[in-house]
Amino acid sequence: MTKRSFAQHALSDWMKGTGPDADIVISSRIRIARNIRAHPFPMLATNEQAREVMERLTSVAENGRLDGLGKFDTIELSELNELERRVLVEKHLISPNLANESRHGAFILSENEAVSIMVNEEDHLRIQCLYPGFQINEAWEQASRIDDIFEEVADYAYDERRGYLTSCPTNVGTGIRGSVMMHLPALVLSQQINRILSAITQVGLAVRGIYGEGSEALGNLFQISNQITLGQSETEILDNLYSVAKQIIEHERAARGKMLEESRVRLEDRVYRSYGILSHAMILDSKEAAQRLSDVRLGIDLGLIKDVSPQVMNEMMVLTQPGFLQQVFHEKMSPEQRDVRRAELIRQQLISKSDHGGVST
After folding, report:
1. SS3 per-residue string spanning 59-113
2. Residue 163 marked ligand-binding
3. Is 303 annotated as a binding residue?
4. Helix (H) or strand (E) holding 127
5. What pLDDT, on the 0 to 100 scale, is given for residue 230?
């Protein structure tokens, strides 16, 4: 893996459509927030202090301490241009906060892009593990192993009563955020989604869009994550998330089955209309593209469309984002130009990559 290979292909391991319940759960993510004792949080640190933290934490990978977990590369944000940073955000490999950070921000990325360790984001250290399908416990086991490795060289800021200390009070305690990205088109179409999401918030979980807090749930994609990090153990937090996510999966499956049984022709019409539009449209904005891709993905998962892989649809959700479009076509574009290029790219991929299990750029 070259240091910029992340910008040359859209498909990370977590997008490959594999793993348990992958027809509904796109990915499972664990993020751990940590800070180094006696060092100011990144927002208060001087340039010299931020540089010291970056060098100290990135040395963990450079000294081979992560070698037992695979191959890793360390990349400083100062090495990347604005477009490359945007691509990283679109692939969920770094946060928007880190992408906009200019004071000695860095990240350590695994070769398969399943692990991204951010340095000098909102906290000194953000360990992120992304797994395909419903594998929240597996992602936690990996994140915990990495956390132990960093703790050997970094004295974490920890309080006996409050737990791990973080820049944002909502992360104090365990410092852990688990999230499950779910494709819930049947619950949206059957108008059950608002009731279910309301119930989710009452059991200490949050619902966000595809790019986290403040983002819209485009393409019927929702992130379900824990809100509480203080007063519960990691096991309790993840057990609650797992249990609720499992119930949502069951509700989505039931809604899909009911739609097939009671309104199959209407469902087929919706799926095939969207497939036709994606195959022939000359202009597509990001919102319509996401919705049409969601319809087609539902058709694939229900067996209505048989010659397109779910993996292709997952990849196109990333390929058609503004940053990646400009990366693919090697040109800076206005929003109108992106809409034309987005439609062009989708047409090409549906024609050339049907039943091939993936797309390439």
Report:
1. HHHHCCCCHHHCCEEEEEHHHCCHHHHHHHHHCCCCCHHHHCCCCCCEEEEECCC
2. no
3. no
4. strand 125-132
5. 87
Q: 126 a known binding residue?
A: yes
What's the whole-number mean pLDDT along residues 297-310? Answer: 91
Tokens for 69, please give them. 């977990």
Sheet containing 72-76, strands listed edge to edge, beginning at the edge strand earlier in sequence: 72-76, 106-110, 115-119, 125-132, 25-34, 176-183, 221-226, 205-208
What residue type is 172 in one-letter code?
A: V
* 104 annotated ligand binder: no
pLDDT tens per residue, range 305-341: 988 888 888 888 888 999 989 988 889 999 999 999 9
- Does 211 show up as a binding residue in the annotation? yes
DSSP state of 36: B
Q: Select from 176, 79, 90 the least CA-distant residue to 127.
A: 176
Residue 194 in tokens: 């608002």
Interval 62-78: pLDDT, tens:
888 999 999 999 999 99
The per-residue pLDDT for 216 is 61
Q: Is 85 annotated as a binding residue?
A: no
Tokens 């000695």 locate to 104
Tell whether 209 is in a known binding site. Answer: yes
Instruction: Please indicate if the annotation marks 28 as binding a ligand.
Output: yes
Q: For residue 178, give the DSSP letter.
A: E
Q: Is 30 annotated as a binding residue?
A: yes
Residues 205-227, buried b or exposed e (16+ Cβ, 10 A)? bbbbbbbbeeeebbbbbbbbbbe
Per the annotation, does 263 bind a ligand?
A: no
User: Mutual orientation of helices 286-301 and 310-319 as an angle, nearest 10°?
Assistant: 170
Residue 158 annotated as binding site:
no
Predicted confidence at residue 193, as pLDDT, reads 93
Are 291 and 278 in contact by the 8 Å Cβ rule? The answer is no
